[in-house]
Amino acid sequence: MPTLPKTKSSRALNELKRLIPEGSTISSFFLFDGSLELGLAKYNRTIVAHTNKQVVYEFWKVLCQDPKRLSSMVEYLIERLSLPELYLLQDNWHQYKDVEQRATFFYILTHCSDTGYASHGNLDKSQLCPVKINSLRRCETKNFYPFLDSTDNPLDGLKTAKDTDFLFLPVGNFSHNLFEYGKNVGYDMATTNHKSLRKELGDTDKKWIVVYDFHPAVLKLYKDYNIQMIDKYGNKTNDKERCEELVINNFVSVL
Question: How much is the average pLDDT of 169-177?
C-alpha cells in the first residue's frame, strides 16, 4: 500500500472490518496517509475520503488517475534531485503550476522528511527506497474517492456528509493539537481540536468511528462511548500497557 509516512501502520483495520459491514459507504476525514482508508476500500467498503488540504487532495487524485505515471515521475526525480535542492523545495513545492509536479514533490518530500510532512523536517533521501516506489506503482484505489472540503475547519464536513452509513476519523496522535497550542501549520498539515471534535461527534445522529494512537486522555475524553484497545499486532487487548491504538464508536456492533 503506497501510504504516506504519517502513521505507523493500520493495526486497527481488522476491528474496523468487524464494525463496518461489507458494502457500506463511509465518509472519512483527515485524509493523509490513507492506510486505513485503502484497507477498507480493498475489502468492499466505499470510501469518500475528505480533506480540506488542497495539496493532499491533489496527490490522491493524481495517484488514483495514474499510479504508474506518478511512480515513474517520483523515480526519475529522486535520482536527480540533490539534498540541497530538496530543502529548497520544502519552501516552494506547492507553488509549482503543474498538479502532477506538486503531487510528485509532495510524495518525495513526505518520505524523505523525518516529520512525515512535505513542508518541514530534516531530509534523508535514503528513506525513499525502491520498495516504496514499487508499492506506489502497484497502488489499487478501487472504491476510494478523494474529496476536497473547501473550508478552513476540517470538521465542517461532518455536518454536510450525506448518503453515508458511517463517519470515520483516523485522527492518530492525540497530542498533535495545533489549534490549541498555536504551532505553525504547513500547507499539508491538518489540525485537530480534540474537544471540538468530541462535541461535533456527540451532536450527530450518524454512526461514527474514531481511531487514535493510545493516550490516557483519549480514554477520559471518550469515556461515554465504546472503546476497544488494539495491540501492536492488531489484536484486541484489555491491557493498557500493550495498547497501541484506540478504536472508538457510538454504536454497538451486532456482527
Answer: 79
Q: 4-8, 13-17, 142-146, 215-219: lowest mean pLDDT where?
A: 4-8
- C-alpha span between 74 and 68 (Å, rounded): 10
Calpha distance 50→48 (Å, rounded): 6
Model confidence at 6: pLDDT above 70:
no
Pairing between strand 144-148 and 46-51? parallel
Per-domain boundaries in the chain:
13-53+141-249, 63-137
**C-alpha–C-alpha distance, residues 35 and 50, integer Å:** 14
pTM: 0.90
Question: pLDDT tens digit string along 77-97?
Answer: 999 999 999 999 999 999 999
Distance CA 57, CA 35 (A): 15
Residues 6 or more apart whose Cβ sits within 8 Å of residue 98: none
HEC-encoded secondary structure of the chain: CCCCCCCCCCCCHHHHHHHCCCCCEEEECCCCCCHHHHHHHHCCCEEEEEECCHHHHHHHHHHHHCHHHHHHHHHHHHHHCCHHHHHHHHHHHHHCCCHHHHHHHHHHHHHHECCCCCCCCCECHHHCCHHHHHHHHCCCCCCEEEEECCCCCCCHHHHHCCCCCEEEEEEECCCCCHHHHCCCCCCCCCCCCHHHHHHHHHHCCCCEEEEEECCHHHHHHCCCCEEEEEECCCCEECCCCCEEEEEEECCCCCC
What is the Cα–Cα distance from 11 to 125, expressed in whole angstroms?
27
CATH architecture of structural domain 13-53+141-249: 3-Layer(aba) Sandwich (3.40)
